[in-house]
From TrEMBL:
It holds the Pfam family HTH_18. This is GlxA family transcriptional regulator. InterPro entries: Class_I_gatase-like, DJ-1/PfpI, Homeodomain-like_sf, HTH_AraC, INH-QAR. Keywords: Transcription, Transcription regulation. It comes from the Bacteria.
Length: 309
């Protein structure tokens, strides 16, 4: 079980906290349903047991930090502040917890103005980072050793992860779930939360498993779940239709409306994307083709040629 510890500061934004917390809570449910063994426990710590939020709702928190390991995550939600981000400063003890956790191999993340807390702890020096677009210039001014990246949803550099404004904490958390458990699990979490799973704005493209999930067809989502989990295997349209409880014609029509392609074309896209990754890691085209389920490399070469045109 991994701990996700949220460090709460006075006047924090509820969505900064709740968005990321909901992702990890839902991920724990999804992993439990799949019998994956891995799960998450959410903890909330603060200097005082009651923490006022920017929206007026008081929050309860622990005042003693739990013992953390390298697999655990600490997140700092942002707070309401003027454009100078002159909000609350962390205590020396809180800074020490952040620095110590990162020094032992753990990950530290922030949402919105929470990046200023990471900067106070010296964790942004020499690293790429971001924050809300209204606060980026101030972050760069206050922490000149930080490499502030504009107009991206989130950044990740040496286990220091920062996200842009408020709702982008959901994107950051989905990304972390995808990294730890694969894009199929992240897609299920996004589907459960009825959000569009996005990736970082400075990456050339998102995973196909996430890219084609911005629809609300439950039938198509169920078929995608099946394909995502078994895309390297031979999947027959009649079997997919039977499992989803509709005819082959209806499934093909629904899939085309929601995804813009047939189920088997979707499977081919997943295979191609995985094969390209393997080739990029040094595999031969022949071995990559076999690894993703093609009988030989001819089909993979045709798909690669088609994608290049």
């Amino acid at each position: 079980m991994s701990e996700v510890v949220f460090l709460l500061v006075p006047k924090l934004h509820l969505l900064d906290l709740a968005g990321a917390a909901q992702v990890f809570s839902t991920a724990a449910d999804v992993l439990a349903e799949e019998g994956a063994g891995a799960t998450y426990r959410l903890r909330f710590v603060a200097e005082h047991s009651e923490v006022p939020s920017a929206q007026g709702l008081p929050l309860q928190a622990e005042t003693v930090w739990p013992e953390l390991g390298a697999d655990d995550l600490v997140m700092v939600p942002g707070w309401r502040s003027p454009k100078t981000a002159g909000g609350p400063r962390l205590s020396a003890a809180q800074v020490g917890h952040l620095v110590d956790h990162h020094g032992r191999g753990g990950a530290i993340a922030s949402v919105c103005s929470g990046a200023f807390a990471l900067g106070q702890a010296g964790l942004l020096d020499g690293r790429r980072c971001t924050t809300h677009h209204d606060l980026q210039e101030e972050l760069a001014r206050r922490f000149p050793e930080a490499a502030v990246v504009r107009d991206v949803l989130f950044t990740e550099d040496d286990r220091v992860i920062t996200s842009a404004g408020i709702a982008s904490g959901i994107d950051l958390a989905l990304h972390l779930v995808a990294v730890r458990h694969g894009p199929a699990v992240a897609a299920k979490v996004a589907r459960s939360m009825v959000v569009f799973a996005r990736r970082n704005g400075d990456e050339p493209q998102s995973s196909a498993m996430l890219r084609h999930r911005s629809h609300l067809s439950d039938t198509v989502h169920r078929v995608q779940d099946r394909i995502d989990a078994h895309f390297t295997k031979h999947l027959r349209l009649p079997d997919l239709a039977a499992e989803s409880g509709v005819s082959q014609r209806t499934l093909t029509r629904l899939f085309a409306q929601a995804v813009g392609m047939t189920p088997l074309q979707y499977q081919s896209e997943l295979r191609l994307e995985r094969a390209e990754h393997l080739v990029g890691q040094g595999a031969t085209v022949e071995s990559a083709a076999r690894a993703v389920g093609f009988a030989d490399a001819r089909m993979l070469r045709r798909l690669r040629a088609g994608a290049a045109t």
